[in-house]
Design a protein that fits this description.
This protein has helices at about 5-10, 20-50, 55-65, 75-85, 85-120, 125-135, 145-150, 170-195, 200-205, 210-225, 225-240, 245-250, 260-270, 275-295, 295-305; strands spanning about 15, 20. It folds into 2 domains: about 15-75, no CATH class; about 75-305, MetI-like fold (Orthogonal Bundle). A two-stranded antiparallel sheet has the order 1-2. It is built from 15 helices and 2 strands. Helix 4 (about 75-85) packs across helix 14 and helix 8 runs antiparallel to helix 11. With about 300 residues, the chain is mainly α. About 70% of the residues lie in helices and about 0% in strands.
Length: about 300
């Protein structure tokens, strides 16, 4: 046994390559402690809101504090939030906006990414940069011009869900702006992912007689499923939680998406934070369910691209 190994044993470590085991173990402990601390800090507001949603506000939380022992638990906050905030109706309105928007965003983004990464043509890089550059523009910058455009674009009542006569005030207008803004980000992510797929797969399918649409639908899309699933979770969360465009483009409160339910409660019951907490918990459930259903695909979509050269 050499003197180096003997000294390392005395210190309680064994050298593996150039990194002592003790140092690696200490780093893991520090890292885990940091992550646990961040997770606890992150969860405190959520736990407080969930806890408060089952308590009375005037006679309990307002007097004893949020983290005090409850005098009684109740579901009254959830019943009142569902009724006053008209959450059931807003769920339907939000689904009418989110589902078509999500489908069109992923469809268009995957088609553009496929064209820009699987084929070489003169302006494919510039076209991809154009889509990506759209993410750099703040949405609030184009609010006023877009509002004026929507107010002047006629829309037949047959295509309008609110019979406004123009694109303004319709959920179709909200869907269009979501597709316009979010397609660029999804195109950027999917194009980077599709670059990792060997081009030989497309060439082999072409030799077997597969047309371009068939290569896209039966070869590239199935291989891009993890990335598409990860984007579906992210985009669903962003579209579902949107408040800005729903408030700006929909002038009728009953037609606005689910996040406006909080605004209604905040206006009528500004002091009853337990009621608002109950509404927030109900509104957050769909995003939690979508994440739990697609959790495996979401995690694999975030990590798989990093392992490919």
């Amino acid at each position: 046994m050499s003197s180096v190994e003997r000294s390392d044993r005395v210190r309680g470590t064994t050298v593996v390559g150039q990194r002592p085991i003790g140092t690696s173990r200490t780093s893991r402990i520090v890292l885990h402690a940091f992550l646990i601390t961040v997770a606890v800090i992150w969860l405190i507001p959520i736990v407080a809101a969930f806890y408060s949603s089952f308590r009375f506000f005037e006679t309990d939380t307002n007097i004893n504090g949020v983290f005090s022992w409850p005098e009684a638990l109740t579901l009254e906050n959830y019943r009142d939030a569902w009724r006053v905030g008209n959450i059931g109706n807003h769920f339907v309105k939000t689904a009418f906006i989110v589902v078509p928007s999500l489908f069109l965003i992923l469809l268009f983004a995957s088609m553009v990414a496929f064209a820009c990464t699987r084929y070489s043509w003169r302006f494919n890089i510039a076209f991809l940069v154009l889509f990506t550059a759209g993410n750099l523009m703040p949405q609030q910058v184009i609010f006023q011009p877009l509002f004026q455009i929507y107010k002047r674009v006629p829309l037949p009542d047959l295509l309008s869900d609110t019979d406004t006569g123009t694109l303004l005030g319709t959920k179709i207008g909200v869907i269009l702006i979501h597709v316009a803004f979010q397609t660029g980000f999804c195109t950027f992510v999917l194009s980077n992912y599709m670059k990792t797929i060997p081009k030989e797969l497309g060439e082999a399918s072409a030799v077997d007689g597969a047309s371009v649409p068939r290569q896209f639908l039966q070869v590239i899309l199935p291989l891009s499923r993890p990335a598409i699933a990860a984007l579906a979770v992210l985009e669903f969360t962003w579209l579902y939680n949107d408040f800005f465009w729903g408030s700006v483009l929909l002038n009728q409160g009953a037609e606005r998406p689910i996040t406006s339910s909080i605004a209604i409660l905040n206006g009528q019951y500004a002091s009853n934070y337990n009621l608002i907490a109950a509404a927030s918990i109900m509104i957050a459930l769909p995003t939690l369910i979508v994440y739990l259903v697609l959790q495996r695909q979401f995690i694999s979509g975030l990590t798989l691209g990093a392992n490919k050269g």
